[in-house]
């Protein structure tokens, strides 16, 4: 198989990682909004929404081809909902301010960074073994 084709497949695998990890986070966050569990209703979406946002940023990162450090993406991912939460506190954005939401946002960011590290190690090991996706190398 040509090196160019293999490179395209590897890049597609990186983008797919963001999609396949971000979509479940979006669905889980939506399910939490509909849950009868008050803790899940209050904080579930606040954990899963930053996870989905992190993976959306990861997809853009892969598409643009200019890798941005995962820690910078983590800070940006945390800053977006945190800014909205502060807007709620100062009446700039409609909603109920809850300082514990910051902890939920941080949890979502840390979970997404952790799963990305694990996924990258798995993809890296498979690539070294020549078993990326199906034995393409």
Structure description:
By secondary structure, the protein is an all-alpha fold. Helix content is 79%, strand content 0%. The chain contains four helices and no strands. It has helices at 3-34, 38-64, 70-89, 101-129. The longest helix is centred in the N-terminal third of the chain and has 32 residues, at 3-34. The protein is globular and about 45 Å long. The N and C termini lie close together (7 Å).
Short description:
The chain has one domain. It has 4 helices and no strands. The chain has helices at residues 3-34, 38-64, 70-89, 101-129.
Per-chain topology:
Elements: H1 3-34, H2 38-64, H3 70-89, H4 101-129
Helix pairs in contact: 1-2, 2-3, 2-4, 3-4
Which descriptors would you attach to this protein?
137 residues; mainly alpha; 4 helices; 79% helix
Distance, first to last CA:
7 Å
| Uncertain segments | 132-137
Main structural class:
mainly alpha
Number of helices: 4
Compressed to H and E, one letter per element, the order equals HHHH
* Rough outline: globular
Radius of gyration: 18 Å
Task: Determine the fraction of residues in helical runs and give it as a percent range.
Answer: over 70%
- Biggest pleated sheet: none
Proportion in β-strands: under 5%
Number of domains: 1
The count of strands amounts to 0
Mean pLDDT: 78
